[in-house]
Amino acid sequence: MDIRTIISRIHSLPESSLEKLEESLTRVDRPKGFRLTETEGGSNVFFLSEGIARAYLPVDGKEVTFWIGAEGSTLMSMKSFVNDEK
User: Fold this and answer.
1) pLDDT bracket for residue 47 (50, 70, 90)
2) Greatest CA span in the chain, whole angstroms?
3) Cα-based angle 9, 16, 42 (whole degrees, multiple of 5)
């Protein structure tokens, strides 16, 4: 899924705004199984153009999944993005 489709699903933008937004983005490809950590994520926002992602926390030695995103999903650490915390 391309970035224009992803952005348009979130909110309709004028073409000039969409072009400016698109110019400010950097494509990042990661292999299957890659772990996006808090240090890499920080206050970044990621748009999932291909594949799926899950968010989980370690609880009693197990991984507890609390979110799964498919193509077109937005990924970010709300804690980092909103409160500037790790």
Assistant:
1) very high
2) 50
3) 60
Q: How far apart are CA 86 and CA 24, in angstroms?
A: 24
Q: Radius of gyration of the chain from Cα atoms?
A: 14
Question: Does the pLDDT of residue 38 top 80, yes or no?
Answer: no
What one-character DSSP code corresponds to residue 18?
A: H
Kindly give the pairing relationship between strand 62-69 and strand 53-59.
Answer: antiparallel
Q: DSSP letter at 62?
A: E
Residue type at 56? Y
At 45, the pLDDT band (50, 70, 90 cuts) reads: confident
Amino acid at residue number 79: K
At 38, the amino acid letter reads E
User: Has residue 43 got a pLDDT over 70?
Assistant: yes
